[in-house]
Amino acid sequence: MLAGIFLFFLRICLGFGKYSINFSILDQTPPKTVVGYVLKSKESKADFRLFETSEMDFSKNFSLGKFGELKTETTIDRDYICTNKETCLIKLEGGMVRGRSFQLLPITVQIRDINDNNPKFPFKSLRKYISESARPEHYISIPKAYDPDKPEFSIKSYKLNVQPIFSLRVTSNDLRLVLRTTLDREKVSKYNLKLTAIDGGRPRKTGSMRIHIIVEDSNDNEPVFDKKFRKVVVYEDFPHRKVLAKVRATDKDKGENARITYKFTPRTELNFGDIFSLDPISGEIRTKVSLDYESNPNYELSILAIDNGNSPKSAETQLQIRVIDLNDNPPMIHVIKVDVAENSEKGTFAAQITVRDADKGENGRISCQMNSSTFHLYVINKNRYQINTWKPLDREIRDTYSLIIECKDFGKNVQISKREIIIKVLDINDNPPSWKKQIKTTLKIPENLAIGEKIADFSAFDPDLKENGTVRYSVEQLNYKHIPLVEIESSTGILRSANEMDREKIDMIQMKITARDLGKIPLKASLNVTLKIEDEDDNDPKFSKQFYNFYVYENEPIGKFVGLIECTDADVSFKEANFKLDKSLDYKSFTIDRKGSIRTKKVFDRERRKDYNIKVVVAKSSVYVQVSILDKNDNPPIFIGPKRMHLSRYTRIGTAVKKLKVIDADAGKNGVLIYSILDDNRFFWVHTETGVITVIGDLTEASNQVIELNINISDCGEEKQSLKINFQIFLNETQTLKRSNLDAPNIEFLISAAFIFLILFVFLLVFSVIIIRKRFKLRRGSSNSAKFPAQSSQVRETSL
């Protein structure tokens, strides 16, 4: 309905061909010159076209730009287009497509002539013959000059150089040199004339031709045609090279003066010599090409009959040929079409059809039809049709339509023409990118994936074309936004790692991947993707300490718990540590279970060894453990040495007479000894910590020769160990105290120290002697070299 209303108003606007857009330009306008705009204002949202017509086509000489500007495409030559015409108008047919509508643009361009051509004769010089017996008013035919400019600027007059013999007479067909007086060949046998043609321009342009008149002996009679005018009617399908007509002339002279030759006048030869031929002997006129009523329905030929006398005489006749039209032209179909955007509304313009038939009457009346369920053919007028859409178009389903339009005339011999019209469906951005069906949105990737490594392909498909179907990709992290962990190639959709991924720090990456086309109004599709980072055994187990030091008491039973080794591993796959003892150091003395508990494999005696070392291994990690054996008070004090001594009765009070030698293998307070004398004793006292016996009373008062001391020696352990000894001191009159009883251990130390010192002294002495001797030899060698240079090598050899 809407389409019909649109076409109705279109017919009114067109006025059935009366409406026209008029422009005017000068002859010789160069290419790319803007003639004017078909609309009052520049229009940038329309599509302008010029299309061919079946008449004289000038669409190649002009073009319509995107703003509706009419431009020349070639140099405009009015003299070629409109030879000798006063007014030169050319018709163009254009169209404007805007949205779903089409507007026909009939354009008329007037080409204003300029006087750019000089008159031109067909010959630069011409030789003519005249008999000396010729009477006044006898004339010689001369061809006219030619000027392609319009009549205003065309030839207006001719001028013959001043002389008394000939005058110039202008006729409609030729120029005539008219003899004004009698000739005398014996006096003048040749005349040289100059004929000038002058046009009507300002300034005037001229062209000239030299004419040489040769005076010959008498040739009394001119040829005479049997008919001065002939008319021939033929159909346009007249066979070419067949005799069309025949002219005949006679000459009353005898011999060569009566032999006649036929030829076209120069003007006829110039205009129609490529269409007709003339037999110079028989006078038969034939067609060189097929005649075409539509090209030229009428021809007028001027034919000369020239005798062969020394002074040739000629006669002229006219032959008119009328061509009768036949239905020999099929309809000519001219198309201006546009590409139609998909999803366009019903009734959107697709093509303008102009049909012309060069034949006349019923032979030129045309009817067209088209078979299509998607497009519809509307009649604008008798020569114009329009194709509009009838159904919505979807480029993704079908991108081109081949429409066949058939036109036929109404002649007896019906002429039919067909034309294929290819309508392309333009793409619009009506499809968002779509993801491939096999794309997974939850992916597992190993940790420590190399930077730049491909993770997955998230390419999408967009069935649209060019920018509308060109997809660009982006990714947005929804967590860990401060660390760029992934990146996506914008043109391919390949997702790659952009940073190190440590499962112990990042277990899952959530992101949104967007595919967006490059249409003017972009369409997009988004996809939420989750990357789960799979753990790898990339972390060594870590112990809670760099070194462990455990303690266990001696004499504890086998299996005694020593300590617990704690170990962790950042890897998720690490479930439980598998503790082992390295088979080195003291591994045989201990065991360790899978939970890291260390236990003893034997009973330890601290007095034999107080420290044990083991190496605990978990996977590739290890740690050293020292187990120190704690002391128990399991050793009683042991007295060393004699339990008696001799002492002078005269030993002074305060003299330390004996240091008791007692050892305790235990450590710490278990090995700390306390001495005490059990009995009341007024002569001696033992030091509680050192065990040194000191005289505290006057021994001269002792009544007995032997004094017995019951000494108790005990350690400081919780469960004390003690030793009781009976130490006897024999008093005499002369015996003095031996110092060895007090500090025998110190004397032994001094002897050892003295021995070591002696060894060091001997070593230093020997070393010093060696150094001094080497220096002495070096000095001696250098002095000998200076005194006896020739013998220095011999001395060195001897020393070696």
Please describe what this structure looks like.
- This protein is mainly beta and 800 residues long.
- It folds into eight domains: 2-112, Immunoglobulin-like, CATH 2.60.40; 125-216, Immunoglobulin-like (Sandwich), CATH 2.60.40.60; 224-324, Cadherins (Immunoglobulin-like, Sandwich), CATH 2.60.40.60; 332-426, Sandwich (Immunoglobulin-like); 434-534, Sandwich (Immunoglobulin-like), CATH 2.60.40; 542-630, Sandwich (Immunoglobulin-like); 638-738, Immunoglobulin-like; 748-789.
- The chain contains six helices and 58 strands.
- A four-stranded mixed sheet has the order 1-7-6-3, covered by helices on one side.
- A hairpin with a 6-residue loop joins strand 13 (190-199) and strand 14.
- The protein is rod-shaped, with a radius of gyration of 69 Å.
- Mean pLDDT is 82; it is low at 1-18, 737-749 and 781-800.
- GO terms for molecular function: calcium ion binding.
- Residues 1-15 form the signal peptide.
- This is Cadherin domain-containing protein.
- One of its GO terms (cellular component) is plasma membrane.
- One of its GO terms (biological process) is homophilic cell adhesion via plasma membrane adhesion molecules.
